[in-house]
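quick q for whoever's on today - can somebody do inverse folding on this one?? i tried earlier but teh output was garbage lol. tokens:
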């Protein structure tokens, strides 16, 4: 297996399937499909992560963004912030990196794909109520997990894609939650996707968050709206 730039994958590593996790909405009785998973679970894959399509999907993304992504990874410049309009290929790039990331084959250090807004809701729920509902895969029952569990999961993961960061008018507690999540991933392999430009992010989030994001590399993704030719 090779990386998108033709580099051979390190020996002793394996390909992983993306894991999509979401968490329960605040103030509602949780539905099973809206819960975080206690351990990563295989879910339906977006079409561009099919093993027979991955390379072609990668090659159909913004070529300049691709080059910048690979250069940033070569420098271990984390976090990697991919920003651009809806459908520009941000999540496609993130999903390809997710698939190619070497898995440590250790359940204590999973490879995670999480929705930013859902993670923020879970963390603010844990702060407000002391716990957040999570679906246990071993018992198929809803269990309660603490702030410590939520942040430890993020901190211990080998690689995280934080998808769709972009609350329009975050509250103070939501700002704090975003900061805690980003702090948990400080210096670790992390990709963040957002529809907001860096200027908009700076206007939306406080200086602490912007400073953490600026510690990595921000890459503008300007590809054609992929949804227009995938439907």
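ok took a stab at it. sequence:
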């Amino acid at each position: 297996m090779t990386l998108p730039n033709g580099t051979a994958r390190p020996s002793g590593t394996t390909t992983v399937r993306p894991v999509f996790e979401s968490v329960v909405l605040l103030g509602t009785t949780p539905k099973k499909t809206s819960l975080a998973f206690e351990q990563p679970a295989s879910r339906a894959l977006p079409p561009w992560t099919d093993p027979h399509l991955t390379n072609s999907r990668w090659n159909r993304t913004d070529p300049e963004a691709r080059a910048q992504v690979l250069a940033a990874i070569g420098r271990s410049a984390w976090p990697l912030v991919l920003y651009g309009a809806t459908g520009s290929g941000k999540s496609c790039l993130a999903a390809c990196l997710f698939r190619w990331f070497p898995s440590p084959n250790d359940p204590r250090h999973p490879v995670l794909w999480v929705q930013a807004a859902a993670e923020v809701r879970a963390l603010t729920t844990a702060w407000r109520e002391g716990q957040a509902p999570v679906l246990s895969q071993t018992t198929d029952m809803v269990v309660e997990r603490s702030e410590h569990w939520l942040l430890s999961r993020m901190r211990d993961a080998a690689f995280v894609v934080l998808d769709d960061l972009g609350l329009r008018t975050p509250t103070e507690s939501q700002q704090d939650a975003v900061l805690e999540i980003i702090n948990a991933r400080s210096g670790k392999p992390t990709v963040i996707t957002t529809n907001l430009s860096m200027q908009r992010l700076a206007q939306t989030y406080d200086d602490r968050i912007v400073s953490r994001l600026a510690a990595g590399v921000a890459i503008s993704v300007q590809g054609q709206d992929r949804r227009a030719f995938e439907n």
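fwiw The two ends are 29 Å apart (CA to CA). also Residues 1-5, 7-50 have pLDDT under 50 and may be disordered. so keep that in mind when u check it
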